[in-house]
Amino acid sequence: MEPRARIGKNRGQQNFADQELQLLLFAHGDVKDSLDLTKRVFDECLTDFITELCFEAHRSAALAGRQKIKLDDVRFACRKNPTYLGRIEEIIGKKSEIDKARKTLDVTDDKITKSSLKAMEEPLGEADDDEDSKTLGGKSAR
Question: Where is the protein localized (predicted)?
């Protein structure tokens, strides 16, 4: 069966939970308790968007001779919309920062490794030397 025909089979059924949709709507400026009709329409729009994006990414993967979709296929599918592409790039950047931070922690003993400690050190400038000489109430703060 054609994949798009399979999607038509579920038409009218809600694909996302009411709570998820409500939180998304509220996060983007809707009232605290949205109408049921609003949630249903938003669910349908969101489902259609994800479906179309996946089909475009699958088309790109098929042209490359692959059956599985890669992140580059999703990027290619969003190439005409700079807002979507920028958001994808932003999320990828954050993911790489998180991965880098996870690598600095030694998972075996929950301590920071020596090599990662050197990587996290920042060189001290002249402004940092003044920090030690602050006084509180006329007396040195030691």
Answer: Nucleus
